[in-house]
Design goal:
Elements lengths: L2 H41 L2 H14 L5 H17 L7
Helix pairs in contact: 2-3
Length: about 90
Amino acid sequence: MSFLDRMKDAAENAVDKVKDVAEDVADKVQDVAEDVADKAKDLASDENIERAAEKLKSVAPDAVDAKIDALADKAQQLNDRGGPPAGA
C-alpha cells in the first residue's frame, strides 16, 4: 500500500469519525432540547400560570389586576393550544 493510499484511508477514517461524533452530538442536543421543552411545558401549566398571576396581583396595584388576569388567560389559551399561533 502506497503512502498516498494510507493517507487517503486515514483521511476517510477521520471523516467517518467526525461524522459519527457529529451524529452523537446532534442526538444529545435533540435529547436536551426535548428535556428542556418538557420542563418548560411543565412549568407553564395552567396552575402555575394562575399561581404566578395571583402572586403578581398580590404585589401590584389593584388597578392592574384586570390586565394581569387577561395576560394569565392569554397565557393559558396559548398553553392549551401548545404555543403561539403561526406567524406570531
